[in-house]
Amino acid sequence: MAHQKKIPMRKCVATGEMRPKKEMVRIVRTKEGELLIDPTGKKSGRGAYVSKTEQAVKLAKQKNVLSHHLQTNVQPSLYDELLQFVEKENL
């Protein structure tokens, strides 16, 4: 029997759905309080995952879920940056 490789799943903070980590983008708050988009998912700091869909990013912006999850003030420009990142990823 072939052993199936376990797919790491993450929960989207905007939609609340579980998806494979590859379909998500991680936003991280570093110890210095800097907010970054972390495509590798490896940076240290507090992270939150958002699905790589336009709807999820817009929902996250609308509900401002990142500031809640990352426990910091999130500028609207970060959501715009995230939207651009998601659009490039989905081309």
What does this structure look like?
By secondary structure, this protein is an alpha+beta fold. Helix content is 32%, strand content 24%. The chain contains 3 helices and 5 strands; from the N terminus they run E-E-E-E-E-H-H-H. It has helices spanning 54-63, 65-69, 76-89; strands at 9-11, 18-20, 24-29, 35-38, 46-51. The chain has a 3-stranded antiparallel β-sheet with strand order 4-3-5, with helices on one face. A two-stranded antiparallel sheet has the order 1-2. Strand 3 (24-29) and strand 4 (35-38) form a beta hairpin. Helix 1 (54-63) runs antiparallel to helix 3. The longest helix has 14 residues, at 76-89. The chain starts with 8 loop residues before the first strand and ends with a helix. The mean pLDDT is 93.
Spatial arrangement of strands, main beta sheet: 4-3-5
- Please, what is the average pLDDT? 93
How is the main sheet built?
Answer: 3 strands, antiparallel
Q: Give me the count of strands.
A: 5
Number of helices: 3
- Shape type: globular
- SS class: alpha+beta
Distance between the termini: 37 Å
**Which value, in Å, is the CA radius of gyration?**
13 Å
Helix content: 25-40%
Strand proportion: 15-25%
- The H/E string reads EEEEEHHH
Low-confidence stretches: none
List the helices and strands and how they pair.
Elements: E1 9-11, E2 18-20, E3 24-29, E4 35-38, E5 46-51, H1 54-63, H2 65-69, H3 76-89
Antiparallel strand pairs: 1-2, 3-4, 3-5
Helix pairs in contact: 1-3
In short, what is this structure?
This protein is of the alpha+beta class and 91 residues long. It contains 3 helices and 5 strands; from the N terminus they run βββββααα.
